[in-house]
Specification:
The protein is built from 14 helices and twelve strands. It is α/β, with parallel strands linked by helices and about 400 residues long. The protein has a seven-stranded mixed β-sheet, sandwiched between helices. Strands 9-12-11 form a three-stranded antiparallel β-sheet. The protein has a two-stranded parallel sheet with strand order 1-10. It binds pyridoxal-5'-phosphate (PLP). Belongs to the class-I pyridoxal-phosphate-dependent aminotransferase family. It holds the Pfam family Aminotran_1_2.
């Protein structure tokens, strides 16, 4: 008897699930592993959000099935947040949809929009679900290489005509995971006019829109003229408010796309638990000092880590957003070789860049979701155990 479909048999295992297995076996053998792999905030969810959840969970009416499109109060909070933060007007009834974490929406928008055989344009390197969701929807991935010398922005004019002709959807992600790249509003204006001219939907993943440093403020793609004609933007409470485990996010923008995605989803899930949506609404409606406080902490770690890397011969320009460092591997290693050496010889998990797509080869990613003293310890272990000749 066979227990998986052909499609499942061919899907590569989710990279972080694999890393977790290796980590577990090392921990079991007594190695004190430092995990700079997965991006999961160590900072606690701010108290006012947790308290709101506790309050709402005690109301009997909240134990019922939630609304398919999300609680009106959550959708209104997202609209308020967009108005305040980006000066973008959203109709909470037609232009906002609640998600069970943005990953859920990212995975489901692909089969909502494409037919088997259609192309999906994805950032390479990029967040792995863009690729796997396309595969599961029987679409074709077209990797848009993101190069350091072009600030990790795709070159739209390099996409072949025949690919464009069968492309229905493009993913973008700034501040970027794993590249940490940030863009200004002009980039989105260009992307929107390109997408409109080619009849391609843009799905912008803005998971790190509030995790930014110094005075950089990440723009929303919906600030670009005409964006609502072709674009949606995914947002997440996960990184901003340290709420990864809550599983709450949203998608905003073009109302036809939002409608179609809500129909798709209504056949699969029945929405997120109402108290979680109301805690998330409270997070968005409250003053944002907690997010500034968290960003300051990530920024200090980022500075400590770029300094530490520099001391061991790895030069990285300090990013303006996200909570990662995207660094070139030292001379003489591939991404996999370096990540393996660092794990086996120094007991430190970093993510090999090629896990995010072919153009990630030659890089590794460090997550800043551990305290500074542990980051220092990681650098010391690498310094002591790994031979690095600078390029
Ligand atoms: C973490 C992350 C997400 C997923 O966020 P959830 O809302 O927790 O599902 C989406 N996109 C990128 C780029 C991320 O790094």
């Amino acid at each position: 008897m066979r227990f998986q479909s052909n499609k499942m048999a061919a899907i590569p295992p989710y990279m972080f699930a694999e890393l977790n297995k290796k980590k577990a076996s090392l921990l079991e053998s007594g190695v004190d592993v430092i995990d700079l792999g997965i991006g999961d905030p160590d900072l606690p969810t701010p108290t006012h959000i947790v308290e709101k959840l506790i309050e709402e969970i005690q109301r009997p009416e909240n134990s019922k099935y939630p609304s398919f499109i999300g609680d009106r109060r959550f959708r209104q909070a997202v609209a308020n947040f967009y108005k305040k933060r980006f000066d973008v007007d959203l109709n909470p009834d037609t232009e906002v949809l609640a998600l069970i974490g943005s990953k859920e929406g990212i995975a489901h928008i692909v089969p909502t929009l494409i037919n088997p055989g259609d192309h999906v344009l994805i950032p390479d390197p990029g967040y792995p679900p863009y690729r796997t969701a396309t595969y599961l929807a029987e679409g074709k991935v077209y990797d848009m290489p993101l190069k350091k010398e072009f600030n990790y922005q795709p070159n739209f004019s390099a996409i072949p005509e025949e690919v464009l002709a069968s492309s229905k959807l493009m993913f973008l992600n700034y501040p970027g995971n794993p590249t940490t790249a940030t863009v200004d509003a002009d980039f989105f204006t260009n992307a929107i006019s390109f997408a409109e001219s080619q009849n391609i939907v843009i799905a912008h993943d803005s998971a790190y829109n509030m995790v930014t440093f110094e005075d950089y403020k990440a723009p929303s793609i919906l600030q670009a003229d005409g964006a609502k004609k072709v674009a949606v933007e995914f947002g997440s409470l996960s990184k901003t408010y340290s709420m990864t485990g809550y599983r709450i996010g949203y998608v905003v923008g073009n109302k036809e796309i939002i409608k179609a995605l809500s129909v798709y989803k209504s056949n699969i899930d029945t929405g997120q638990f109402t108290p979680i949506q109301l805690a998330a609404a409270h997070a968005l409606n409250s003053d944002q000092s907690c997010t500034q406080k968290h960003s300051k902490i990530y920024e200090a770690r980022m500075q400590a880590m770029t300094k530490g890397l520099k001391e061991i011969g790895i030069e990285v320009p300090p990013p303006k957003g996200s909570f990662f460092i995207w660094a070139p591997v030292p001379e003489g290693y591939t991404s996999t070789e370096f990540a393996t050496a660092v794990l086996d010889q120094a007991g430190v998990i970093v993510t090999p860049g090629n896990a995010f797509g072919p153009s990630g080869e030659g890089y590794f990613r460090i997550s800043l979701s551990v305290p500074s003293d542990i980051l220092h310890e990681a650098i010391n272990r690498i310094k002591k155990n790994i031979k690095i000749t600078s390029k």
